[in-house]
């Protein structure tokens, strides 16, 4: 993978050396020497990782770290001559992932950035997997409360959303009508009776459509409903 990083360093020879080091290792590098320029760049573009000096020509790298942490959860490494314990502790407490003092070994810096990027990327993939549910042609994003069918959004009412959430969290499990009624009782702040449940499930079923000729919601006559286990469509 080609990572996209920003390097902020006010010593020209070190800045050039770092840029060459990472570009030679297939990184896409943006480089600058001060806080003002870095903030301007970051308003226009997001990066996979950052390498910052602490003492810059127009302030301290801590300010940049604070701005980065407000916008993204990505690796930030300080590379600096400020090796006193107070500076190291401050950087780590503010949220930097590593603190390397000058002079430094190029290979070690490269390795530490690579390790942090892979760790963040792995955690991000796990987080996405935990917040997105796939079923057939459907993609349900729990974190945004949105449902998509082949990338086209399906707009749901509150009670339909709640029913969908219950079904997806219990895929393949028979849910009796009593269980469903209990879980959606006050979703709209009003009483939901048995007939209303039937109507709402029917409406939800129509909005969802079918997958390979089958309805997503299976009716178990006289008992309740079950969300069918459907392999995600990769097409």
Description of the molecule:
- There is one protein chain.
- The chain has 235 residues and is α/β, with parallel strands linked by helices.
- The protein has two domains: 4-131, Rossmann fold (3-Layer(aba) Sandwich); 136-227, Winged helix-like DNA-binding domain superfamily/Winged helix DNA-binding domain (Arc Repressor Mutant, subunit A), CATH 1.10.10.10.
- 44% of the residues lie in helices and 24% in strands.
- It contains eight helices and 16 strands.
- The strands form five sheets. Strands 2-1-3-6-7 form a five-stranded parallel beta sheet, with helices on both faces. Strands 8-9-10-11 form a four-stranded antiparallel beta sheet. The protein has a three-stranded antiparallel beta sheet with strand order 12-16-15.
- Strand 1, helix 1 and strand 2 form a beta-alpha-beta unit.
- It starts with a strand and ends in an 8-residue tail after the last strand.
- 23% of the residues are buried.
Low-confidence stretches: none
Task: Evaluate the radius of gyration.
Answer: 26 Å
Approximate helicity band: 40-55%
| CATH class label of the largest domain | Alpha Beta
> Mean pLDDT, nearest integer?
87
Brief digest:
With 235 residues, the chain is α/β, with parallel strands linked by helices. The protein contains eight helices and 16 strands. Helix content is 44%, strand content 24%.
